[in-house]
Amino acid sequence: MKAIIPVAGAGTKLRPHTYTQPKALIPIAGKTVLSIIVEQLQEAGVQDFIFITGYLGEKIQDYIKETFPTINSTFVNQGERQGLGHAILLTKDAVQHDEVMIVLGDTICEYNIKEVLQSNVSMLAVKKVDDPRNFGVAEVDEESLIHKVVEKPHIPKSNMALVGIYKIIETNMLFDCLEANFREGVKNRDEYSLTDALQCMIEKGTTFQSFKVLNWFDCGNKDSLLESNATLLKKFGTSISPDHRFENVIIVEPVSIGKNCEIRNSIVGPNVAVGDNTTINYSIIKESIIGSYADLFDIVLEESLIGSDTEVKGETRSLNIGDNTEIDLG
């Protein structure tokens, strides 16, 4: 079993943060989106990983090699983004006929991974959504078998969205369908979609079993990222590095505070994640994510996303500030 994790997207909905940091490395609940995905798969016994990189791909490689030195990692570059189907097709030589678990690099879900990995049929993760038009959609029968998948349908016949987790046994057929779609120019919204290849497999007789995820944490934009951060902090619990300097500080749990942070005369929490080597003074921070090496002084922040190497002074309520920024609101 090999895991394929596509992380080539530019993350436009999380700008300005993704100008300098891949979306998969955005901090959340004291970790990163990518580290949560890799740790889940590792704990279930997966050791072979294929990362599809592109935009800021060298940062992904450096992060994986430093954070997960024991896994077998292969990096495949998607130089021109032509959709998820095209990205998966690029991994054909690395897969070498093995079964695969495809997990999108911005998809954090709670589900029984070991049960999915041990299944003797291919499986697709689904979750009921209010408006499925922006997702791949699965039409599922009473036995949880999938008989049709459609990418972003204008008139959905189902509200069961594909959440971005795919366990594929018949990888030879997957790549045959991907190659056929690429050869014939089968596109959806000007991209080669993985969903179209899955439908091709269904038409050729592949059985897909659906499975429902317990929770699906959306990390696609600022508001959903902050909401997911709060939920995961409640799940993981408070984590404060012992290597810190606090003076006259009130902590309202849950929070995650990284290494070598200096916090004075401040209130931090609830639902705040602070990166390493950050300084906070005379401030109130809640419901926010603060990057590493940030410097916050005399500030009131709520529902804010502050990048790394950022200096912010003065009073405000809600900010979305990228890396390497200095702002004086006094």
Automatic annotation (TrEMBL):
Which CDD domains does the entry link to? NTP_transferase
Using the record's annotation, list all stretches that form the Nucleotidyl transferase domain.
Answer: 2-234
Q: Which InterPro entries match?
A: NTP_transferase_dom (IPR005835), Nucleotide-diphossugar_trans (IPR029044)
Keywords, alphabetical:
Transferase
A GO molecular-function descriptor? transferase activity
Q: Which organism is it from?
A: Lacibacter luteus
What's the name of the protein? Glucose-1-phosphate thymidylyltransferase
Extract the Gene3D superfamilies matched here: Hexapeptide repeat proteins (2.160.10.10), Spore Coat Polysaccharide Biosynthesis Protein SpsA, Chain A (3.90.550.10)
Q: Pfam families, from UniProt?
A: NTP_transferase
Q: Does the keyword Iron apply?
A: no
